[in-house]
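Handout, tutorial session.
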Amino acid sequence: MNTNFHASRFSSVQDNASSDFQETQQLSSERSIGEIISEANKLSTDQIEQILVYQKDNGVRFGEAAVALGLANSDDVLWALAQQFHYPYASEGKNSLNPELVVGASPFTLQAEAFRTIRSHLIMKIYSDEGPRPAVAVLSPDSGDGKTYFAANLAVAFSQLPGRTLLIDADMRNPRIHELFNLSSRSGGLSSILSGRAASKVIQSVKELPNLFVLPVGPTPPNPLELLERPALGLLLRELKTKFDRIIVDTPALSLGTDGPVIAAKCGAALVVARQNQSRVPALQNLVRTVKMSSAKIVGAIVNEY
């Protein structure tokens, strides 16, 4: 999906890296690009020697020499560089991420850079101050606006920073987050917690992105709005805010019900996503009006150009 975003009004994050992260980062930075490329491509001793000779004769770096000799490609070099700087990214052939997760699957594209820009705005706006950090609910007026795509990629972008990021699928009408991350939703999820039937380990980790965790929606309930309006959601978010540095919440479109504004009220902050040439101004005005009835703060608006 080729999607660009324009952002207006945004945020910030103060993350404290754990000692485990610092140790891992140090170990990664001590490995050379050559070592990482050689190991990943299973290069033989003779092939490594060829690369070293070419590198010396032509005054280029190991990665450039490997590409010139056809023993690696440019994507391998980018992947190795990402590993050295502890940047969560899996290159083509090493990547099991859904292509829609462009920030993780294609992090050097313009689409991914747009998400990083929005991440920076959010860091400056809502995460720079001391005190409780709000969860951010992602809302849109209609289905098909790209809201789930946006929420998932924003969470991936935050997960590439130090600290723990949690992505919650609160769209109990048309959930997709578990599909994007290839996670099981049958064993339990948000609906299980809110209905008091939660099993253990409902929050799942993402193998390719070690700082990202996902709470899938779980079994689709017949009464989503009633579940969301229970005090349990507010209590859950309050508890999760003590365990995660950032929380992004996907919600249903307003055209399907008022779930989104209800969730935003309990999160504390809302991002509005609209689709260019498709979203109607009255629908957006209605969404903003509904959110403003609560204490939730609208921290930004995104226009999906495609």
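The second record follows below. Compare its token runs with those of the first.
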Amino acid sequence: MSTRPIRITVRGAFAGLTAEQRADLLSRAAEHDIATAAYTPEGSLTYDVATRPFFTFRFADTVAGEQDIPAAVTRAQATAAARLTGRGLGFKNLTSHAVDMSQVPLGKRGRRLAARTD
């Protein structure tokens, strides 16, 4: 059985941050900068709390079929919520978006590489 790679983006906003929590997030901001963002199985967190209170988690997952995508999205949201709650951080307005990478059209370079391997 083949699997389909998917990318899940979970977005939300920090809520009720104390001055201490905000200072901690600011001190660790370089670890969570957009320049280091990647879709990973464990989830990559990015934010810029100095500018705005929003965050993004990026998850990579695989599913057997399209019908399994909603369950993967639910897992990603639960993982994001658990990681934030585990650090004592409040959050609100979680939203998610999934992209089935097997359905993304190849660009010019991708088509050229695919033609070479066929």
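Points raised in discussion: The chain has one domain: 4-117.
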